[in-house]
From TrEMBL:
Annotated transmembrane regions: none
Taxonomic lineage: Bacteria, Bacillati, Bacillota, Bacilli, Bacillales
Organism: Paenibacillus jilunlii
Record-given protein name: Two-component system, response regulator YesN
Domain Response regulatory: 3-120
Location of 4-aspartylphosphate modifications: D55
Key words, A-Z: Cytoplasm, DNA-binding, Phosphoprotein, Transcription, Transcription regulation, Two-component regulatory system
Amino acid sequence: MKTLVIVDDEPSVLNGLRSYVDWAGQGIELVGTADDGDAGLEMIKELKPDIVLTDVQMPAMDGIRMAAEVRAVLPFTKIVFISGHNDADYLRSALQIHAVDYLLKPIRRKELASVMGKVTGALDAEARERNRVKEMQVKLAQSLPLLRERFLLSVISDRIHPAHIREKLEFLDLTMLSASGYIVIVIMIDDVPQVLDTRSEQDKQLLSYTVLNIIQELIDKQMRGITFEKQPGEYVGILLTRQMEDGDTEEAEEAQSPEQELLLLAESIRDNLRQWLKLSVTSGVGEGVSSLPELPSSYKQAKGAADQKWYLGKNRILSMDKLESAEHLRYRYEAEWSERVLTALRSGDRERTLSELEQIFARLEQNRGQGSRYAQNVSLHLILQSGQVMLELNGMSEEWEQKEIEAWKQVMRQETIQDLLQYTAAYLQEVCDYSRLKRNGKASEVIERVRLLIGQRYSENLSAADIAEGVYLSPTYVRLLFKQETGETLFEYLTKVRVEQAKNLLKDPQNKLYEVCYAVGYTDPSHFSKLFKKITGYTPSAYREQLT
């Protein structure tokens, strides 16, 4: 409901408007009346009404002057004038102070209702607009972090126009980025897939928030600047430096250089993230620049330095001046490399396979201009070729095909060339083991060892890894070899052994059914009963009954 104050020096008009108009029916509450401009102004300032209905001509302070003072302190209050037919000059003055409407005496109820309807409608419309603006301001405030991040991304990505930098800094409350010098640092979490893949989305966001907070707190403590997350696992810090000028004191000259400060900051970031979050990070440091539009070059240098962990290893602080210059592509992959690896695989020689791989990767390590991609392609080629050996030995089972597909994925996730060498070597040495046993005719010996182990340990909660460990081979290789040599899987054979042992135990009526279940390696009697029936055609209890 809108509030109304009436000011008029004629008692009859004031009394009529107060007593004979149904204000409530028009959605208006009459909160006060006054008989002159002075008293009316004080009342209006106190009550702050939505609408003021005032006479034009009044002694002492007239309606025009009163309205002007009201407008100065209550700009949203609507003013409607009451005027006689001879008050044309006053009405012109009323229009100049933006009165919303006027009524001529004598006042007619229908005309009064019409004018008040327009006034309340205008008030409602303005209130809606103010609310909309407030909502937009709230949404804008909520989106400021995202807008800042987008702006910072544009700053390091060559997408910012120099003419609009100052305005954007002020709008985004980033005026602290106005400086005479900048350096970029890139902090990359090592082994990002392993760090992030096992976490829920909530945990990933919490980790990102915590990492950003730690980095920003250290920046605020040791230098000045701002940090943001460019992509999962990569954080960028834009750091402010002060360039030395002729008038600087000896104390300033003895201070550490921006590069030294930055390296100390990078060490603090590395040490704190390792201490508090158990994270290993590699940091790259760019060169100093003198303006924001030059930041992309500093970012590229910092990112390029951090990417050199592919060759130099993880958990390091790298800057461009530490990197060796290198030719674009010093060593190209030669067909003879593949032939030597294939020969080692076919002979089942683990040591020779590893030696050939180490020689290949030692050469690839010198191809600094190609980064990780060239070495990854070589690794994929070797894994694909090892599949040729498995096909020759009739070992390309569905399980091995899945292992090969997973290997292609894992190759692309390795973060250093040494990681890639270790992963590729482990994969190819499994092929070596398979090749050696197949060609030496020792596969049957492995199968017998597996059967002996299962016969001795069937009552345990055996996994493929347990069985493989017991015969000193990899789980994948043992599953593959056992299936190929016997025609049944490891767990089909294990289940068969357990069921045979269960049959023997069921012959003794003293053995309870759940005791038999536990004795042959199962923890769930219901699951055991289903397996037993699947193989024998009887439930354990029915099998015991038909024995009697």
